[in-house]
C-alpha cells in the first residue's frame, strides 16, 4: 500500500506548517507570560486543477478485481457509495437502494452507463478494498475541496485530535469487535486518517501507522499539535511526534505513575490562575480554571520533551449539586507559544472527535447497529461516514442529520457538487 499511497498523495494539496523553538525559562517554576509569536506563513491557494472531482479522485484507488470482465467501474461504485452516505445511507443495502432510486441521467453522470449493479456486487467489492488507502484518498479529496479560512486567528495552530472507537455491531467470529483509531483536523472537521486496530492488540501499536498516514496527508507535521487521551501518553509516541517537528498535549493518569505523581506535587497553590472560563446552559454551570508552569528540576519533567506542566480544574453545578474534577497534562510547547487560554482551547479540542464525529456516526448514521463484519467492510463504512460528515462540515453544516436529508432531497445537486471541480454547496 505504501507506494500506491505515495502516488495518490501527490495529487492533493499539501499545507505548510511552521516549527517554533523558543528558549527555555530560567526559573525553577515560572508562571506563563503573554508573548507574541511570529506571523504564520499563508496557506498556498488551491488551484482548480488540484480541486478534483470525486470520480477523478477515487480513480486512484486500485481495483482488486481481475481486469477481464469488469462491467462496473470501481470509481463509479465508490462515488455512488460516498454520495449515498452523504444523503444518509447507513448500510451497503441502503447505498444500492439510493443508486436504484436515481433516474438514468443521474446514474450515467456517476459512471453507470451499462446498467447498475446488484447489491451483492456493491457489497463484495467495497469489502475487498484497502480501507487505509480509501481513507487517505477521500481525506485528500476533502482537504482539496475545503476553502481555507480567509484570515487565520493571530495564534493559529493546526490541532489534530486522536481517539479510538469500537464498532459495537461489527462483532467478529471470535467475539471481538472491530476497533478503529482516527485523527481529526479540528479546524476543518475532516478525519485525516483512520486505521484498524489489530483485534489481538490495542490502540498503542496503531498510533505509528496513524501518524504516518496523517503525515502523508499533510505533507509536513512541523508545528502541528496532537491532542489525545491518557492512553496515548506514551514515551514512544512523544518521541515520534517531536521527531517530526510536531507537538503534543497529553493528559497524565495512572498509566504514567511517576509523571502523574510529579505533576500532582507541583505547588499549584503558589501559581496564579492563567485562564478561567465560565459556561452555562441546559441547567448546568461549569467553570474551567487553567494553571500552567515551566518546571525546571534535575532531569526535567518525567516525560520526553515535556516543556510545561498544566492543571485544569473543572467545577460543575447541576441541579444544585456541585462536582469538581482535576486533570493534569503536559505539553511539548514552551510558555512563549502556549498561553493558558491556548491550552484551555486545545485541551477541549480533544473532545471534538468524540462529539463531532463518533457521536454523529452513532446517532445519525446508527453505526453501532450496523452488523457488517466481512473483510474491510466495517472500516470502509466508517470511512464513508467520516467523509459525509467532513463534506457537510466544510460546506458549513452544523446539523449533519439535516444536511443528509437535504442532500437526499436534492440528489442531482449533490451529484453535480461532488463531481465538479468547484467547491460549491448543493
UniProtKB/TrEMBL annotation:
Tagged with keyword Transmembrane helix: yes
Superkingdom of origin: Bacteria
Keywords from the UniProt entry: Membrane, Transmembrane, Transmembrane helix
UniProt xrefs under Pfam families: DDE_Tnp_1, DDE_Tnp_1_assoc
Keyword Nucleotide-binding: no
Record domain H repeat-associated protein N-terminal: where: 57-142
Annotated transmembrane regions: 74-100
Domain Transposase IS4-like: 158-388
Protein name: ISAs1 family transposase
Upper classification of the organism: Bacteria, Bacillati, Actinomycetota, Actinomycetes, Micromonosporales
